[in-house]
Amino acid sequence: MASVTYKNVFKKFGDLTIIKDLDFQVEDKEFLVLVGPSGCGKTTALRLLAGLEEITEGLITIGDRVVNDIAPKDRDIAMVFQSYALYPHLSVYDNMAFGLKLRKTPKGEIKRRVTEAAEILGITELLQRKPRQLSGGQRQRVAVGRAIVREPKVFLFDEPLSNLDAKLRVQMRAEISKLHQRLQTTFIYVTHDQTEAMTMATRIAVINKGILQQLDTPQVLYDRPSNLFVAGFIGSPSMNFFPAKLSKDGDGIIVDTVDFKVKIPSKHAEPYKSLGGKEIIFGIRPENIHDPEFAPPNIQGEKIAAKVDVTELMGNETLLYLVSGKNTFVGRVDPRSKFHVNDSVQVVFDMDKFHIFDRGTEEVIR
Amino acid sequence: MKGLRIGKNWLYLPLIGMAVFYLLPMYVILVTGFKSFGEIDLKTMWNLPRGIALDNYIEAYSKLAPSLWNSFSMVIPAAIISSFLGSLNGFILAKWKFRGADFIFPFILFGMFIPYQSILIPLVQFMKAVGITGLAGLAMAHIIYGIPITTLTFRNYYASLPQELLEAAKIDGADMLGIYRYILLPISLPSFVVVLIWQFTSAWNDFLFAVVLTGNTDWPITVALNNMAGRGIISWNVQMAGSLLAALPTLLVYIFLGRYFLRGLLAGSLKG
To answer: In this complex, which of B164, B182, B272 lies closest to A83 when CB atoms are compared?
Structure first.
């Protein structure tokens, strides 16, 4: 159990900077998820912590110990790899016992820890098998078991679920969350899948192009994204974006996309009053776009004319792919909606739930 | 479908023909080895022996036994040591790269293409100069000449292993030698079989190095067999029995370990 700190960390490969000034703290017993598109540097950030890559600049501490020059084996961490990286010639038992044997742990203690971990993961009956005799999900469990028996201060996971099929992934997701609750240890987990991040994390760090974009709880990340990238990355389907201009209309402020105009409710208008004429990006999530017939009462609605391009019935909801002038966007509406393809319809934007970003800096304006 | 089968059967005909042609010398060795000296004649070369007489083998063995053991005592350490060195080289060149590793690797491989004949004189002079003579010198020559091919085999095998495997071991607490000893060495046993068979066979069959590096007390089997023919009348029956004895170890190695040989060559990866 320990906190982890990245202090102004840089990683460069030659002229290429992979990690730029990473600076944050992971609290003790936290489940922190590093998320971002592939190639964003999230795995490198994890590997720096594991000691598999050298830190170019900055400090990483585990607990109160700077680990920059400490060998991976002495950092008191355990890591679960994407490919599981099980030792193919060793049985499941020996795979899990390997690290303990190298550390000269007494035999009885090894047996106790391996048996216990196997029980937690439900792989007791597999202990004598070789990795090639296991399914993907079972291998995954062994890889996790190998980490558990070490009883490390910090668990590192590098996209551990991406080689599993969709159903198993959902199941393992819940199991890893349960494991975190049970072990009460710091977990740092890398994934490109925002659903994994949202469902498992106590806090999420969104990384893009080697730069930390935002670090906060899943709910805050979803409700109050601090820039255009986070807004677009978190949530599925993604937030809709419309290039637009702010303009004054008497006392009020209007978002003008050329194809349509919406009025910002006066209770939200304060930050935008002095920004008349500013080039912005207007963002609204699909679930905040409604079919007027089924729109919840009491919302600050603004009606927009649009044409239905495609409809996708999901059962509990319907996704509408809409076109308004040169803008295409997605609405997530009540499944009872009677909108059909090619209908010219009116949809309602819930103007309590919009986001406005500076088109130049892509930062949120609020 | 039927036409295809007939076509396939026709294919066997030339194949069988070629196999028979290829095996003819083996046939002559076998039948001549069982003949008495009186039966030896070019005209009756193809005839089967009148009886199965083991005298020739006993005689050949009594003449060749010391050099047979010479061969074993030279070939076994040579094969083991050069395989082991190759696997260490392969490990470093594939997984523990130092600056210039990719530059040095082709240089090591270049050794495979140097013909034995071209280095014969410097080899003998060098061995004399450093005082390693006889079987020890011969073993050393085979060890060094084997390094390129053993290095190539192991390097390519180790390069196919995922880096994460080593990283997992690193985090588990293994250092460089620990990773080699506990992970790569046991995983690469199939490659060891391949390389050992290869090295055993090529060192066993070598004549040229043996004839220049050893004297008549420590001749290996190939040189001894050649010299058994001697001058004047050649007892072909004993000579043939001796040839079979000389070829037997490599044949047996291949017969018993051959399936590992094929498996090792094909089983590049650990996937599955």
So the answer is: B164
